[in-house]
Amino acid sequence: MKFIIVTGLSGAGKSEAMKALEDIGFYCVDNLPPTLISKFAEICYQSKGAIEKIALGIDIRGRSFFNDLNDSLEMLEKFGYEYEILFLDCSDNILVKRYKMTRRNHPLASNTDIVEGIKKEREILKELKERSNNIINTSNMKPRDLKEEINKSYTSGDTKSNLIISVTSFGFKHGIPMDADLVFDVRFLPNPYYIEELREKTGEEEIVREYVMKSDVSIQFFEKLIDMVNFLIPQYIKEGKNHLVIAIGCTGGRHRSVTISNLLYDFLKEKNYSVLKKHRDHTLR
């Protein structure tokens, strides 16, 4: 089990870090009172694999509860529960700018003295920072940069596992899928609809696939589609996208779009991407 305690300076990006961890499959609980950490860990470890990745967000908002954190961590060690601490740091001047921008006051600031609040918090968190396994300084990071750093640190180097690709065939006469990120129009490919013995079949059948792909144009198109997909997917992964919908459309969504969607799905599976397939309109008339 992966058990991470996410903490750090207020305004350093804990909320963004928790969102990033949730996106890669962590069960996230924010601002749990430290006195409950050991009990929560016990429940998770007894779940027999139902929960495999947990992230707990702990910060100074707990005030008096926060003083119990060291005791709770010692309890985890006593019971043999393994954990990591992710500490988010940031320079004072950047933190001040962030608070000024959001027009919020620091939780430890008195009389709106943000600098004094940051100083107090650094002192309180000093020991916790020293025992942290991973310290990320977000001073020069945008949210997308922090997400990329989280992905890099907690996905065991498998960046493909974060992206789910859905390949959807559809018919333009039934409308373009609303959730499509990429839309490819294959109405220029040979149309089995005009072949009487193929008209009532679908692109799921080999005879239809062979008819569509016997054209040089079809072969060239699919090669160029693969080239584009090979280029685009790593860019989406780098951007931090978690779900990509590729929609392939022909007139009715029955023959050509199904054929190309199946070929693309097979290709992506061979590349070890997490990929889903849906033929939206192939049974419609």
From TrEMBL:
Pfam families named in the record: PapZ_C (PF22740), RapZ-like_N (PF03668)
Keyword set includes Nucleotide-binding: yes
Domain RapZ-like N-terminal: 1-155
Keywords, in A-Z order: ATP-binding, GTP-binding, Nucleotide-binding
Residues that coordinate or bind ATP: 8-15
Keyword Nucleotide-binding appears in the UniProt entry: yes
Family matches, as NCBIfam families: PRK05416.1
Name the UniProt record assigns to this protein: RNase adapter RapZ
Lineage: Bacteria, Bacillati, Bacillota, Clostridia, Peptostreptococcales
Name of the gene this protein is made from: rapZ
